[in-house]
Amino acid sequence: MGYFDGLTAASFKRDAEGRELFFIWGRLGKGRIIPSEADATWVRRYLKIYYVGVLVAIVPTLMISGDPFQPRWMATVAIFLLLALAVLMPLWQRVRAWPLAGERLTYGEAISASAKAHGAVSLAVLAVLSALMCAGSLLVALHTDGTTVGILGAVLFGACVALFIWMLAARRRG
Predict the structure, then answer these.
(1) How many domains does the chain contain in total?
(2) C-alpha span between 18 and 63 (Å, rounded)
(3) CB contact at 8 A, 120 and 168
């Protein structure tokens, strides 16, 4: 499976009865019992398109937003976040009538499902790329005027390295 399949898989699990559950808000919300395979396919496709759209939209959004933490930047990021939530409304409209599940999604279950769907090679590539981005961010922090951005980048990509290594370990554990 691909990268976006891995992201999508983190929102699903099977309960003790073998029913597929969907957690629109991840581990923060209640799960819904998916009534049919066609509904499960629709939700997975919608989420993949959503993730692709967010990834494609975030780069130009940040490019036009101006200097970090300035009013224009804050407004642009706020508008982006509101639009990203608004685009989830058709998904929420569809799943809100589904029966609530009695189980919750744990962080470990979400990571394990995502790790299985990603594949070992893609996780290793993501870990290496994140390590390179972390190193680049540290260089930016140390050798340019972009100290804040460099530090934030190093923290973000350092966390990504740790996450991808954890996912590789979870994948090996089965």
Answers:
(1) 2
(2) 45
(3) yes
